[in-house]
Amino acid sequence: MSVVWIKNGRVIDPANQRDEIGDVYAVDGKIVESLSSQQKQQAETFDAQGLTVSPGFIDLHCHLREPGDRHKETIASGSRAAAKGGFTTVLCMSNTKPPADSVGAIRQIVDLIDRDSIINVLPTGCLTMNREGKALAPIGSLKQAGAVAISDGGHCVQNNEIMRRGVEYASMFDLVVLDHCEDANQTDGCVMNEGLWALRLGLRGMPSAAEDIMVSRNVILSSHYGARIHLQHISSAYAVDVIRRAKQRGVKITAEATPHHISLTEASLKDYNTSFKVVPPLRTEADRQALIEGLMDGTIDCIATAHAPHTEIEKDKEFDYAPFGMNGLETALSVCLDTLVRSKLVDLSTLIGYLTHRAAAVLNLDCGTLSPGTSADVTIFDPEESWQVTPDTLASLSHNSPWLNLTLRGKVKATYYAGKRVYPFAD
Amino acid sequence: MSTEPEWNRKDLVGIEDLSREELEMIYAKAEELKPTLKRSQKKQPILRGYTVVNLFMEPSTRTRLAFEIAATRLSADVITVSGNASSLVKGESLRDTAMNIQALNADIIIMRHSAAGSARYLSRCIDIPVINAGDGAHEHPTQALLDTFTLREKLGKDLRGVKVTILGDILFSRVARSNIWALRKLGAEVTLAGPSTLVPKQFEHFGVTVIHDLREALRDADAVMLLRIQHERQSSTHFPSLGEYTSMFGLNEKRANWLKPGAIIMHPGPINRGVELDSVLADSKRSVILEQVTNGIAVRMAVLYLCAHYAAKHRLA
């Protein structure tokens, strides 16, 4: 019998409206209400005085790159980065090499997870073969092999007929389709947001209309066919408004926003720093504000990192030639604390909700709370402690963070997954 | 006691970074050097012993030649490397290429590149001066310098209140961007004209006026700068066809009559004769196009001199 006793922390469990100084207990990997005196004697204890104790964070959107791009990240390194960032459940995207469009590919990812992951990594299967948007992938078989959601990971199906059949088919298996909303015709050759900064820098701009049109398309498909579509990394104010109105009409659509889109704008690109090159692109201050409002009124369901590791060599290029994407698992908490909590827009409990049970609800995952009987996934952090983002402090294999070399506030002190301490790392 | 203003830049990456005083320093040096172009003995011993590398990743005739001639006039050794003959086609990174050029004891790199921001990137990779000969749609600073130098010769050194219309493909144009910054810093009034898909209204945030009516755009102009329609850069969606462009925005003899009598016509080249500019006008009295080309040597000599002088003073090579 393994027993864990986390003592005297500020326990915040938003799903259960709990916010108090207290203890959290786990026996054999599950949360329990209390410990017997005998269990207390044999418990592994953690003194959380002065720290915040919350359900383990959930990330519905990260790229762990394995198989195929092990130089950027692996299941092992990515799961460590997640644990260090306080995440105990992450959804890895299907854009691996080969893509996760076959039973064999999903089985390989499941085997890698079983072998190498220190947290709960859940695989995503492709919506279309080779993520090309032309022919549907074997969605039912992918689910049987272990996929918990369906997505073309970084590609948006452009053909509306294929998308319609895909979401309709996936809904038969209760699978949510996660879509990267981008009208590719409007973004071909583009590297940043369309607007003043693109004009100034001479870089090709992606209009927010490219996102807004696909968000609207997905709202329409979800509405007509009752299919569950989750809109990934929403970045535009207009899209937030489209989602808000759809939800008011009862459309079963969900959405996420990333730490970088709620904290940064296109002005960050002024020096052509490729660490800020991401898709959808960083947009305007008005867009950033609208995303935060969307989170606060429930239009946007949760925060997801869109963790997209790339090596320094890949990013150290002319801006046009560098790949899109930012490292995000380990900086998410600090950035969100700054952007949302220290700015007094939301309280700490609300932020934890964005990172836990609200994300779980999107995929109906049985985690994200400290309810007795659930997996003992617990994150313990100091909201005030500072740390410097450096290649040495990041567990990820890649260091393409827009916050590299900056000091951030808010540090994870320990992460428990299924009652086992996975951070600080055992080795 | 007045002290001579001092050039404090290793690189020339863009006009946006420069102050008005820095622009004036370049014009003053170019004015001083221009008469030497007419001498039978044209060489000045100013950069004797220097090695200047022209790294041209995109095709160019005028700019490359003008830089070569400018550096040669200053007695520097000039080596031109074009993109398709360099190791970049073998997959070498720009950083590695540049560091190797520096290791070969080059003193200055002049670069033309298709990616916006690449000149700034290069300037951070290496210690020796980098002169931007055009980076994507971002900037082409020496073109704006020679354009404004020519305007000062033709319309007077004080360009405050002078009205300049830039006509054509502004969206994809580094020449337009550099000229907007230069002309605004010198106090000129800038109008951008052309189809709405190539001249978005948002440019007005940079202190210029956007007009889609050609007659109105030409009426008050003291100078009109034409830009080449860069059909190789844009996707097919920005305007219907070259023929449609010419019929709506091409400058021909009839439309030139909408200009004021003394207004001049400029073009950075290469001209698509009969597309954005009628052939007769290109060779007319209004045209200062070939004078622009000649002035391109003088301003590039000035820029090479100033950056090399800065580097020598700070022992950067």
Automatic annotation (TrEMBL), chain A:
InterPro entries: DHOase, DHOase/Allantoinase_Hydrolase, DHOase_cat, Metal-dep_hydrolase_composite, Metal_Hydrolase
Cofactor(s) the protein needs: Zn(2+)
UniProt-listed GO biological process terms: 'de novo' UMP biosynthetic process; purine nucleobase catabolic process
UniProt source species: Cerasicoccus arenae
CDD domains, per the entry: DHOase_IIa (cd01317)
Similarity-based family: Belongs to the metallo-dependent hydrolases superfamily. DHOase family. Class I DHOase subfamily.
Positions of Zn(2+) 2 binding: 180, 233
Pathway(s): Pyrimidine metabolism; UMP biosynthesis via de novo pathway; (S)-dihydroorotate from bicarbonate: step 3/3
Keyword list, A-Z: Hydrolase, Metal-binding, Pyrimidine biosynthesis, Zinc
UniProt cross-references to NCBIfam families, sorted A to Z: pyrC_multi
Residues reported to bind substrate: 63-65, 95, 310, 324-325
EC number: 3.5.2.3
Record protein name field: Dihydroorotase
GO cellular component, one term: cytoplasm
From TrEMBL, chain B:
Keyword Transferase applies: yes
Organismal lineage: Bacteria, Pseudomonadati, Verrucomicrobiota, Opitutia, Puniceicoccales
Keywords, in A-Z order: Pyrimidine biosynthesis, Transferase
Pathway linked to the protein: Pyrimidine metabolism; UMP biosynthesis via de novo pathway; (S)-dihydroorotate from bicarbonate: step 2/3
Gene: pyrB
The organism of origin for this protein: Cerasicoccus arenae
An example Gene Ontology biological process: 'de novo' UMP biosynthetic process
Gene3D superfamilies with a match to the protein in the record: Aspartate/ornithine carbamoyltransferase (3.40.50.1370)
Catalytic reactions on record: carbamoyl phosphate + L-aspartate = N-carbamoyl-L-aspartate + phosphate + H(+)
Protein name (Swiss-Prot/TrEMBL): Aspartate carbamoyltransferase
